[in-house]
Amino acid sequence: MRVALFLTCVNDTLYPDTGRAVVRLLTRLGVDVDFPVGQTCCGQAHYNTGYRHEAEPLARRFAEVFGGYEAVVTPSGSCGAMVRELYPRMGERARAEGRGGALAAALAPVVPRTYELTEFLVDVLGVTDVGASYPHTVTYHPTCHGLRGLGLGDRPLRLLRAVKGLDLRELPGAEECCGFGGTFALKNPDVSAAMGADKVRSAESTGAEVLCAADNSCLMHLGGTMARLRTGMRPVHIAEILASTEEDPLS
Amino acid sequence: MNGTFLGMPAFPEAAREAVRDERLRGNLRHATHTIRAKRAAAVAEVSDWAELREAGRRIKDHTLRHLDRHLLRLEESVTAAGGTVHWAADAAEANRIVTALVRATGESEVVKVKSMATQEIGLNEALEAAGIRAYETDLAELIVQLGDDRPSHILVPAIHRNRAEIRDVFRSEMAAWGRPAPEDLTDSPAALAEAARLHLREKFLRAKVGISGANFMVAETGTLVVVESEGNGRMCLTLPETLISVVGIEKTVPTWRDLEVFLQTLPRSSTAERMNPYTSLWTGTADGDGPRAFHLVLLDNGRTDTLADEVGRQALRCIRCSACLNVCPVYERAGGHAYGSVYPGPIGAILSPQLRGTASGIDASLPFASSLCGACYEVCPVAIDIPEVLVHLRERVVQGGPATREGTKVVLRPAKGHAAERAAMRAARWAFGRPGVLRTGQRLAARTRRLHPRTLPGPGRAWTATRELPPVPAEPFRDWWERTDGGRNEGDAPQDPEETK
Fold it and tell me: Is the pTM of this model over 0.90?
């Protein structure tokens, strides 16, 4: 199976370790991974801030770059939800506004073949035990777009529970937003920071060493908050935990 | 604090104070988390909740699509039942109508049962200017009125107050409005309720004019419905000689049978009750029972304009249950006052900028008062996709575009203060349209990473004031991919020019 990795601009620029982990993990599971270098950004920040027209060319680019693959895998619940939930809506709106059905037609084949990483592992590859080993205490934050946008459900938890040595702690108030929200973090910094601090405190109350999520943008906000609050916890993307093995542990 | 929302600052400034008010945050956290958990349990009991939600959505959508027809039917039924229907295009007209109706009775005081529509139009202030005193009789509304305060929650307008604060307000203010509070009033709920009961009982027995809102209006029978928990509403609806109901036009449902759905979803969504304690229904006038005169003031005040918007119109499905407020993490920290309207929380963030337009600072900021977490959409009993409408209204604020104001199609200009952001978004889109440019930017960031400041100037300061920045890695992923042929050929790590010095 030949799949394309849609890494997202945030991961590409700031979290290359997550990208390397996805490649390592999928290769270990026998998947042939390609990284189309024409990819850039899904346009979510534009779309969600009210710049839908600026996001449209990025959706078109996505369709062009990823159109030829059997599956597209992304380690981001948020960007995954952008593609799956909002791209079709953008196509419909373009049509309704008299700009023709070209965008909708270009997106139609690629949208349903785009999967968030944990979804791809569980639903497409049909695995929950990916042979990982990670001897640490971990608490999992289900990010909003993964939880409510994509409906990831307990897939990430099933994957984590199968990791050798991993001690999974339940996060109180897990389904509450961490307060990142893209440009929300800049436009409403006080509320965003208060939400982040509350989330970090509840993560801390589990006694876990690691706060894990399937989205580095939320982890960027929470990791930045943890560092400022000097909690001693660290944020880790789920891909890096799942890629970690006894022979090649995550440093 | 004063009773109106005029001249409110934009949401981020209004919220800043609330976020730092530990007592307020404590009150809100406790109240919203309690009701949130109860609601979830009450909803989980109903096996066909998803179907009820869908039925509610459909009934509302269907009614809104043919609202003109249903309103005429309603007028016909109300008139046939002995009532009089008045049409009010905006707040000023509604206030004029109600003031004239009260004056015609010769009375100078009225009792009111919780009505958000009258708060929306500032009726109490208008009546006061005409020398008419309006007494709020819903317990929470009474607390707000006595405290010269503003409501901060749809269902629990005084949610921001704790028991001790309420006792203090009763003790210092009640006497000026009628029967004083007992000298030795404690803050036990029973004592507070008893003080309010005695204070209000005098009003109910004396009042000749009652003013109400309504949760629903049934077009086929001309029946109005108020759903409440205290019974004070029922006193207002049955004792006065004249009853004036001020209701938004979107509260219409076509048939009696449609109530079945909402009388199941509303109590569970709002108070987490299987059935609400008092459901009062009134149809026109009847000999020897209830008010002798009944007036229905149908309020538009921006609703028809909202209805003209294909994306935004779903906000008019709202049945004011407040489930979205109770589950909203932003509301929980910012409090209801920051939303600058009688409609706070997620629903207020999409309703106010549609009813009032996006011209003011507060209205232009409301669509951004959300992290788009989607919890509000998930709990909404009529499936209003609040995040979708928020993004739609953000577009209106930053880019302008078509809208309907006072029945006329207009093209709105972007709100002020977004020029720099717009330029940044365009620049980012331009760069993201060119992978080469993106790569150059990434490499530049990687090479200068040792020089990056820990605090950012300008808009970035909003981030670094409370959070650390992530460190920029030595090599972006796409460079690693090319250098190692997708990880097949891991060579030497890249040279970090700063490290080799």
Answer: yes
